[in-house]
């Protein structure tokens, strides 16, 4: 059966596992080996070695993430920030300009504002809910537009369709940090984003026992990210890959339940006299009540 016809729950359990099974093992064993026999015929990036992101646990978890996001390929990294910084440094070089959402995860905000300019890369913040203002921020050197599907911590939801359309019209690489949505609520690549980024430390792993990240997209672009990661060295250890793969088996169940619980809490808090403001995109009457379009769950019920 092709993965397109399997449900997200089934993909979460089965996608990516080695076939045939290793000695019949139902679960991908931990391959705690840094290097492997090599026939010497391949190029540098193909040498089987943990830092080169091509060993069995890395391959299994990468395939599972790609299948869950409906994308061709994924590469895992040592943390969400390793994934995000490596992806940005793959797409941008000295002299380039980045458009970036004004409401951002703190680590990403710090990287953009503290580190990009030292590398000769400039940036402008954009109001993610006002697409008509983006054109004025463009420069001839603009290469990419970066948003978060649901921003951390303010839960802002950009006009995601407008981001994709704008990027296509202007030849920019479109990138979204999909950590908070997870592939259960939104699959960016299916909706036209070039790259989807994750902190696997959060919902993907789901058990607070691992730091991990992922970059998801078309094979060619993900290969470029992988080769940059090979150089920068932020690869994910096999045991962490094993824990991430195991955690993701329950992703769909967990996130649906989390959607329900968060929706209940948000509605209760919104009516509470001691609470002045609730930031939750599923509540009626607050900015960004439009859920990520194409969301696979009934966002209104969240
Ligand atoms: C936590 C987080 C990150 C960073 O992930 P780490 O695994 O801590 O490096 C990036 N983006 C978002 C939205 C996050 O919540």
Describe what you observe in this structure:
The protein is built from 9 helices and 7 strands; from the N terminus they run ααβαβαββαβαββααα. Helix 1 packs antiparallel against helix 2, helix 2 (56-68) runs parallel beside helix 8 (238-248) and helix 3 (80-91) packs across helix 7. Strand 5 (173-177), helix 6 (182-185) and strand 6 form a beta-alpha-beta unit. It has a 7-stranded mixed β-sheet with strand order 1-7-6-5-4-2-3. The chain has one domain (3-248): Type I PLP-dependent aspartate aminotransferase-like (Major domain) (Aspartate Aminotransferase, domain 2, 3-Layer(aba) Sandwich), CATH 3.40.640. Residues 290-302 have low confidence and may be disordered. Helices cover 34% and strands 12% of the residues. With 302 residues, it is α/β, with parallel strands linked by helices. The structure holds pyridoxal-5'-phosphate. Pyridoxal-5'-phosphate binds at residues 79-81, 105, 107, 148, 152, 177, 179-180, 199, 201-202, 211, 213.
Helices and strands in order:
Blueprint: H1 8-14, H2 56-68, E1 73-77, H3 80-91, E2 97-101, H4 106-116, E3 122-126, E4 142-148, H5 160-170, E5 173-177, H6 182-185, E6 195-199, E7 213-217, H7 219-232, H8 238-248, H9 251-270
Helix pairs in contact: 1-2, 2-8, 3-7
Bound molecules: pyridoxal-5'-phosphate.
Residues 79-81, 105, 107, 148, 152, 177, 179-180, 199, 201-202, 211, 213 line the site of pyridoxal-5'-phosphate.
């Amino acid at each position: 059966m092709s993965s397109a016809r399997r449900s997200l729950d089934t993909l979460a359990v089965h996608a990516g596992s080695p076939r045939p099974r290793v000695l019949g093992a139902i679960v991908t064993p931990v391959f705690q080996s840094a290097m492997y026999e090599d026939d010497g015929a391949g190029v540098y990036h193909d040498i089987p070695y943990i830092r080169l992101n091509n060993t069995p646990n890395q391959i299994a978890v990468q395939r599972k993430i790609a299948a869950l996001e409906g994308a061709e390929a994924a590469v895992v990294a040592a943390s969400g920030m390793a994934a995000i910084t490596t992806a940005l440094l793959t797409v941008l070089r000295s002299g380039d300009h980045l458009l970036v959402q004004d409401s951002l995860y703190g680590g990403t905000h710090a990287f953009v504002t503290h580190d990009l300019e030292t590398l000769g890369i400039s940036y402008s913040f954009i109001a993610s809910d006002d697409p008509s203002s983006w054109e004025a921020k463009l420069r001839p050197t603009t290469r990419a537009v970066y948003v978060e599907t649901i921003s951390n911590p303010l839960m802002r939801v950009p006009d995601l369709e407008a981001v994709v359309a704008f990027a296509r019209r202007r030849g920019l690489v479109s990138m979204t940090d999909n950590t908070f949505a997870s592939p259960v609520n939104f699959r960016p690549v299916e909706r036209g984003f070039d790259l989807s980024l994750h902190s696997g430390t959060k919902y993907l792993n789901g058990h607070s026992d691992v730091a991990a990240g992922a970059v998801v997209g078309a094979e060619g672009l993900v290969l470029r990210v992988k080769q940059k990661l090979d150089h920068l060295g932020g690869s994910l250890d096999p045991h962490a890959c094993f824990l991430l793969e195991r955690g993701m088996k329950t992703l769909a169940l967990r996130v649906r339940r989390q959607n329900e619980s968060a929706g209940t809490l948000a509605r209760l808090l919104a009516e509470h006299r001691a609470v002045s403001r609730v930031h939750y995109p599923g509540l009626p009457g607050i900015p960004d009540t439009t859920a990520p379009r194409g969301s696979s769950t009934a966002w209104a019920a969240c």
